[in-house]
Amino acid sequence: MKDIKDNLSDSFLISEFLNGDDEAFSSIVDKYQRKIYYLTLRFLKNEEAAQEVTQETFIKLYQNLKAFKGKSNLYTYIYRIAINNCKNYYHKELKSNPISIYDIGQLELASSNSPFKILKTKEDITRVSKIIDKLPHKQKTTFMLRIFEDLSFKEIANVMGFSINSALVNYHIAIKKIIKEWRK
After folding, report:
1. Among 22, 23, 8, 19, which Cα is nearest to 74's?
2. Same-domain check for residues 8 and 84
3. Cα–Cα distance, 147 to 151 (Å, whole number)
4. Contact call for residues 41 and 60 (beta carbons, < 8 A)
5. CB-based contacts of 31: which residues, under 8 Å, 6+ apart?
6. 96, 154, 165, 175: which sits with the fewest CB atoms below 10 Å from its CB?
7. What are the tens digits of pLDDT across the range 6-21?
8. How far is CA 7 from CA 2, 11, 15, 18, in A?
């Protein structure tokens, strides 16, 4: 039965879960757990913390799935929960021991238009990482979702809960601030 449910649509699995089928929720977890884990790992840079936040994400999803209205896809809804959990974890647990939450070394720098193609050394990567860490939360998150997760601006807007235009603006402001700080 589980193999069949892996291929079913999210809306069907949600419906089944809301009708009391916990196996349907297990299928949702199986479908998205790996993606959410790697998202949280990129934010928190700590495997244990990423596992904890991923687990909390699915616990919150389990508790709140009945509130999901289907205006976005389920993946976007889970992303939003995960990002909020990362933010809460970071502020609560890591405030006294700040860490870099971006692994700039994973950036895809192949694009000739990329302002990051100038990064050639570990020191450059560290410097840019520190610049990104200083960005306001919305700009950092928008930047991360665009660069690391390769989400469209529409998807970013859904995850972040704001308009597509806001996603574009936050991303471009982040890029401009990074370039400005780099040139100092």
Report:
1. 8
2. yes
3. 8
4. no
5. 6, 10
6. 96
7. 446 888 999 999 999 9
8. 9, 12, 15, 18
Show the CA angle centred on residue 113, arms to residues 112 and 116, nearest 5°.
Answer: 90
The structure's pTM equals 0.59
Domain, as residue range, for 75: 2-93
What is the amino acid identity at position 18? L
Rounded Cα distance between 140 and 52, Å, is 22
Chain segment 98-109, per-residue pLDDT in tens: 444 333 333 333
Q: How far apart are CA 58 and CA 81, in angstroms?
A: 9
Identify whether 11 is part of a domain.
yes
Report the pLDDT averaged over residues 38-47: 83
pLDDT for res 56: 95
Residue 133's nearest CA partner among 54, 7, 43 is 43
Q: What is the mean pLDDT of the chain?
A: 78
